[in-house]
What we know:
By secondary structure, the protein is an alpha+beta fold. Helices cover about 40% and strands about 20% of the residues. It is built from seven helices and four strands. The chain has helices at about 5-10, 15-20, 20-35, 40-45, 50-60, 95-105, 130-145, and strands at about 80-90, 110-115, 125-130, 150-155. The protein has a four-stranded antiparallel sheet with strand order 2-3-1-4. Strand 2 (about 110-115) and strand 3 form a beta hairpin.
Amino acid sequence: MGRIAAISSNHGAEDVTDILDPINRRILAELVANARIPVTELARKVGLSKTPVALRIRQLEEAGLITGYRAILSPVRLGLTHVTYVEMRLSDTRHKALESFNAAIRLIPEVEECYMIAGGFDYLLKVRSRDMADYRRIMAEKLSALPHVASTSSYVAMEAVIEQGIAPI
């Protein structure tokens, strides 16, 4: 069994470094920059022929390192230039309440990111909207209506200094 095939059946965290040899790191970096790059061009950039690169991509997918491909839309071109971070405190943090909140928040398309937080509040949200009036509507109609919400605090971003949505390789 090859090294990458063994890793894909194990999925251990320590094994990820084994699969991420310099060539695979370069392949991933190129795919992150342009997921539509033709395999022949990718092969040229990493210094291998087409067949081994295609095999490596398939193995990276099977190992769970590549989980999918998607188009990245421009929020600015879509008119979604207003970013607000929202702290949410819940009135109930038992398992069923958290499950209920998690299921409901996933249905709100304006919520770009949502994290459960250990600290002075329970969730941190990144909400994208057209402007302050649009955000106020989202807050009133959607966020405040979420199950078990006790309180919220909103922080409006003035400028995106770094906004990549890309994990470092």
